[in-house]
């Protein structure tokens, strides 16, 4: 029996045109053949629905799915730069100290290079950087990406409340999207990026067990070559991803996760290390951000101890960075107000530039 209310002819033709465009995009994209076949079947079904109206919502869902599928780096990857001297220079440029972490990376690069020369595959160690706030854990990811010549993405775990945040939800649910793993791959546009799993100890307690289960799958070479996101409903090969985890401590991390990672302790910085970090890393960057140069602000050596400990001891460098930023901002204000263009900070005049209780 014919439907008494078929879709208007103009709307029907318009949809066919849109569906054809969607199909062309999928067929021209570099995606697995099975996914192309799957999308074809979805579009055939959509054309059938169009004959009887009520297809617009389904079209939006399918178009959204196709957009996600063709935006992912199914086959794209970068070539590793395995020059150990260059890697060491880049790591030293970004971080003072951290010798154990740097040494592990250089050892890994050496193994990669030897295996590449013999046309053999080598798996990366999965490092877990453990340390107090401000000890350089999170910023190590981008530095390593630059050293290796890989793309970089970050997945924040702080406050994560469901394993679906990582794995995505089925398309049967309204307004769903892939999980954060697939989103990280899309951002990186490479199937072998460095992905930082940031603060994996800070997930919500009620979901800890389930999230740790997904982490085991991400980090296990026997499973992660076919990681299944519920939204995509098609496995993605994560075996070439270099994962790095960070946490403040390991108490809330499942043993099965720890077994798959190489735990590296990030020690607190000594005052001497902080002085060097402040002088040669933080101050030049903040001066540039403020539109100033090293000629505008000169800090005498005797002052740095006060800058390092303006209000007492701090294990990391975040307080140090805030203190230096405060000093530079105060100098910037004085320059704009016309009080001079060069300021030499000494023990005699530093107090007004530092935070107080």
Describe the structure.
Strand 4 (227-229) and strand 5 (234-236) form a beta hairpin. The protein has helices spanning 9-28, 33-50, 56-70, 84-94, 99-117, 140-148, 164-167, 180-188, 208-219, 255-258, 271-289, 304-308, 318-336; strands at residues 127-131, 152-156, 194-198, 227-229, 234-236, 242-247, 262-266, 297-299, 343-345. The longest helix has 20 residues, at 9-28. Strands 2-3-6-1-7 form a 5-stranded parallel sheet. It has a two-stranded antiparallel sheet with strand order 4-5. The protein has a two-stranded parallel sheet with strand order 8-9. It has 357 residues and is of the alpha/beta class. The protein has 3 domains: 9-70, no CATH class; 84-266, P-loop containing nucleotide triphosphate hydrolases (Rossmann fold, 3-Layer(aba) Sandwich); 271-353, Helicase, Ruva Protein, domain 3 (Orthogonal Bundle). It has 13 helices and 9 strands. Helix 1 packs parallel to helix 3.
């Amino acid at each position: 029996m014919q439907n008494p209310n078929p879709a208007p002819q103009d709307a029907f033709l318009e949809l066919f045109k849109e569906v054809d465009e969607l199909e062309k995009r999928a067929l021209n994209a570099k995606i697995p053949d099975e996914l192309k076949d799957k999308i074809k079947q979805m579009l055939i079904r959509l054309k059938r629905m169009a004959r009887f109206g009520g297809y617009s919502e389904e079209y939006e869902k399918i178009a959204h799915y196709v957009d996600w599928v063709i935006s992912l780096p199914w086959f794209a990857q970068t070539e590793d730069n395995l020059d150990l001297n260059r890697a060491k220079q880049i790591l030293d440029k970004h971080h003072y100290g951290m010798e154990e972490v740097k040494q592990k990376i250089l050892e890994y690069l050496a193994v990669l290079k030897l295996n590449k020369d013999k046309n053999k595959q080598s798996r990366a160690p999965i490092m877990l950087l453990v340390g107090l706030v401000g000890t350089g854990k999170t910023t190590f990811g981008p530095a390593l990406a630059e050293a290796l010549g890989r793309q970089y993405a970050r997945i924040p775990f702080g406050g994560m409340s469901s394993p679906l945040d990582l794995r995505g939800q089925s398309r049967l649910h309204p307004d769903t999207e892939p999980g954060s793993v697939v989103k990280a791959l899309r951002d990186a546009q490479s199937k072998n990026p460095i992905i930082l799993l940031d603060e994996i100890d800070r997930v919500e307690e009620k979901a800890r067990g389930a999230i740790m289960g997904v982490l085991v799958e991400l980090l296990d070479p026997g499973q992660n070559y076919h990681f299944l996101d519920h939204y995509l409903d098609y496995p993605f090969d994560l075996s070439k991803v270099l994962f790095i985890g960070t946490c403040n401590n390991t108490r809330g991390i499942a043993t099965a996760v720890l077994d798959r990672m190489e735990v590296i302790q990030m020690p607190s910085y000594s005052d001497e290390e902080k002085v060097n970090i402040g002088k040669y890393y933080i101050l030049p960057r903040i001066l540039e951000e403020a539109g100033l140069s090293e000629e505008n602000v000169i800090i005498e050596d005797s002052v740095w101890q006060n800058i390092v400990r303006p209000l007492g001891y701090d294990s990391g460098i975040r307080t140090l960075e805030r203190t230096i930023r405060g000093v530079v901002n105060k100098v910037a204000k004085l320059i704009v107000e016309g009080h001079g263009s060069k300021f030499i900070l000494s023990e005699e005049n530093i107090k007004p530039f530092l935070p107080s209780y």
